[in-house]
Design goal:
heterodimer, A: 261 residues, alpha/beta, Nucleotidyltransferase, domain 5, 2 domains, 5-stranded mixed β-sheet, 21% strand, globular, B: 422 residues, Rossmann fold, 4-stranded parallel β-sheet, 17 helices, 54% helix, binds iron/sulfur cluster, metal ion binding (chain B)
Chain lengths: 261, 422
Amino acid sequence: MFTMGIDIGSSSSKVVILEDGANIIAGEVIQIGTGSSGPKRVLDEALSKAGLKLEDMAKIIATGYGRSSVEEAHKQISEISCQAKGVFFLVPSAKLIIDIGGQDVKAIRLDSKGGVKQFFMNDKCAAGTGRFLDVMSRVLEVNLDDMAEYDARATEPATVSSTCTVFAESEVISQLSNGVAKENIIAGVHQSVASKACGLAYRCGVEEDIVMCGGVAKDLGVVRAISKELKKPVIVAPNPQITAALGAAIFAFEEVRGANK
Amino acid sequence: MTDTTAMSAKELLGFYQEELYEEARQAKKEGKLVCWSASVAPSEFCVAMDVAMIYPETHAAGIGARKGALDVLEVADEKGYNVDTCSYARVNLGYMELLKQEALTGITPEKLEKSPAARIPLPDFVITCNNICNTLLKWYENLAVELNIPCIIIDVPFNHTMPIPQYAKDYIAEQFKEAITQLEEICGKKFDYDKFLKVQEQTQRSVAQWNRIAALSSHKPSPLNGFDLFNYMALIVCARSKDYAEITFKKFADELEENLNKGIFAFKGNEQKRVTWEGIAVWPHLGHTFKGLKNLGNIMTGSAYPGLWNVSYTPGDMSSMAEAYTRIYINTCLDNKVKVLSDVISGGKCDGVIYHQNRSCKLMSFLNVETADILQKENGLPYVSFDGDQTDPRNFSPAQFDTRIQALDEMMKQNKEGVSNE
Ligand code: SF4
């Protein structure tokens, strides 16, 4: 049996096709999100990779910011529950999830069965999100993918203290013009992101294992900064961008199985 | 006089709300006094003196619910009111500015003309009370300065410890006496203590019926949709010292009881989970917030906010009245706030809690983080909080709200199904 999870975020679209609730046979990501051609393209890509058709899916569940605009889906589940489901499947020892996406930062505490015990997320402010990093990468003229490398070379992280993304951008610009090394600025930017996420994590209660997911988890500089702040190791979920889509596909599988019992 | 006997509670609510505004407009025309009053300032004094009353917070909520807030908020912005100031205050101060311009020039400003809210007359004096916040002090002082009118302030200190000490009650009772003296001066007549006693008795009858309605949400399934309390609240604020409130609430409670006996519930057969809503409603997005919950089968059966007007006391006893007006839960310490909310949650047999982090109302929001934490340790119920504002539509994001209540719904489901063992 095949099930599908579709996660439409603010800045990327993800699809996972799952076989019998256990094997990921497609896990695709396109870096544009809701309202764009991303959702349709990623769906087509996943199906063609798996060599399957939409009709082959026993159930499709959508999640993420754009979840209600996915016509193909039979149901919507919040990204909080899906993220928990997906991460717990990949890392059964997970107790705390830190998920940083395009416009959301979340900390999710799991119970021993992988259920959501508590979660906190940012509200109406983009500080500490993927968008924040986007903006910084642009002013610094460093690709997002290269930020971790720069971070690793930092000698003395600069301080980026503004919460507001726009003000932080000016702060970074003035540091650049003062000749502060990009490496140190980037480490400071990562620290700023980490401090927002850790604030939420502390409210949830920090307990190992700590797993990071979401697009920003690919930036190992952020992972390093979070780990340093929490003084604990942080595991990056395998393929961290697709964990919520995976969770949605698992939910879909469980629902079909439950109905067939 | 209109015959109200055949009216439903909903019709009575609309009728009396309009009636109150009409009375104020009429009073102004006849050269009688009009007072603007803070929502939980004692209404008894002015009503005993036959002063027509307008309640700016309720009026502002109405403007918000009718999606007219932005226009007047801009007027307040232009006057220099910071966006961090309570939006009830900003809406009202903006609206007052428009009324003032009209009074000075004889020309009705376009924004006033277009405003969807009920037209209200400018006040001859204002009365305020800091038993729910201190914003109300500066707001009303500004009204008084802008319009060059008297301002009666009833100072009700915050209760850092409970129970309320006698000296606090004595102090507030003295404040009441002082207010009466000021009122006598403004009205140019002696205070009528006999009428005052009758008004106090009326207030108690209104409050009793109000509490009757609120208690009905303890039934499972509930005949009462908690969001209705947000609407009916207009009369506990604006007419608790008149029989308008008593008549309407009695009718509503009777209707609900009848429904209960017939097995008619607010959500028909679709009540799946019950939530407590802590904080003021998001007036400009009332429909969105209500429907979002309803679509998930979540009924609101708990809210401490309507309880602000549970001002039960012994008529004739000033100390008892003082106590009623100071024990309001947002005028008390964290421990008491937690206790009140805990009773609301268990009374409403709730499965989860939603906290409105209201940009306007600091007093109702800043303690939420701590409150939520303590309560969850106590009752184990899941909760979420969302950023919003009671009347500034710019401070609420529908998608953010939806994600949170969906996640809450899933957590409540998980709890109920016993998936979680913690
Ligand atoms: S909403 Fe809060 S801040 Fe505004 S007047 Fe009411 S109690 Fe005061």
